[in-house]
UniProtKB/TrEMBL annotation:
It comes from Vogesella indigofera (Pseudomonas indigofera). The chain crosses the membrane at residues 391-413, 419-440, 452-479. It is a multi-pass membrane protein. GO terms for cellular component: plasma membrane. This is Magnesium transporter MgtE. The lineage of its organism: Bacteria, Pseudomonadati, Pseudomonadota, Betaproteobacteria, Neisseriales. Belongs to the SLC41A transporter family. The gene is mgtE. Homodimer. Acts as a magnesium transporter. SMART domains: CBS (SM00116), MgtE_N (SM00924). It is found in: Cell membrane; Membrane. Its main location: membrane.
Amino acid sequence: MTVIDKKQPTDRLQDNLNQVQRLIERQRLVEDLVHRQDMPKHDLVESLVHKQNLVELEHKLESLHPADIAYILEALPLDDRLLVWDLVDSEDEGEILLEVSDAVRESLIESMEQHELVAAAEQLDADDLADLAPDLPRQVVYEVMGGLDEEERQQLQSALSYEEGQVGALMDYELVKIRPDVSCEVVLRYLRRFDELPSQTDKIFVVDEDGVLKGVLPVRRLLVCDPERLVEEVMATEVVSFHPDEDAADAALAFERYDLVTAPVVDEHGVLVGRLTVDEMVDVIREESETEALNLAGLKEEEDLFAPVIDSVKNRWAWLAINLCTAFVASRVIGAFEGSIERLVALAALMPIVAGIGGNSGNQTITMIVRALAMGQLQPGQAQRLWRKELGVSVINGLVWGSALGVLAWLLYGNFSLGLVMLAATTLNLMLAASMGVLIPTMMERFGKDPAVGSSVLITACTDSGGFFIFLGLASLFLL
């Protein structure tokens, strides 16, 4: 039986990881000792190497929740990961594959035989199998589908017909439906016939004879209402529902906004076809947050921490190439003012400060704008108003921090005019950062691109080149 300790989950996860790593290290040490002494693999050595530590490790894994095992697998190098994966209970493999990141899932699937993949997939419900199916070999999916009953096969085909990121691809088909013209007592008797209710059941869906959703009956209301009252008298008719082709990220925001546990999914005729659950929506929110953070850094996808070098290179090279081009532009800006820098060496020491503070301010603005766009809080007509607001913030910050930098430059180099140039350059570069921080994501959104992709790379390029040009240009005009 798996026992889950809910106290201090972060510490618990780290403790579990440390214990697994220690067991793996002991196993590796024993194997290395056997190989170095060139000992024959007789029964005693075999028992020592393959049973002692491995059995202890296997027992440890049996006590862990699949989500915790997934965390451990993501934190291990490939060789150790595969060692642990071989010891995982086969009944948990399907659920663990759902929990790990895409990159780690790919490495695990590559290590498995076809019959192992089929066995793992057969442990999953139709909706979970739909999540995993795009990563499985096609032959495995066909074989698993052949073992499903007609209803499950239709559910799986329905889920696979939707694109990744749509509500239909994530909806759950296990739900409880009742008619509106029955009494609450009848509903209670009906529920007692179940061995257990579907997970996350906080409400029962009320449909007519055609399957059209009429309302929902919260379980907490069912338990306290008069058993003789009809369902239609106590059900809630104002229901937050979704269509299968809606964006899952929008549905996740609705779950967060309305504190939903489950919500019905209906087709264009209002017929109930499934439900969304909060655990799926939490996963969507987490994945959206991770994707946004990666895109801001110019990464295309989540990267396996211990992936082969070539895989990491492929994931990172595109925006690094763009960054190289922008860095070359910045170097040419500096090159245009070589004479000014030679005549006043202090410029070389101070210009990175101007560029750096502009880049930091621009990233703050662009992060706020990208988040507002992702949550639907920023409409196209509001961009100009927001730009004026950000411009005001940048002017105030520029005057405050530019003055501080100007005084510091004056004290260090004994040149009051240099301090004034530092003030002016800082303020102007912060204004440039604010303008580009609003312009870059809104323009990308207008042209149908993800506003998060590479935004931080672009804003840094603008503030670096712009900061160098502004500072050196002002210095050339007023100091030389």
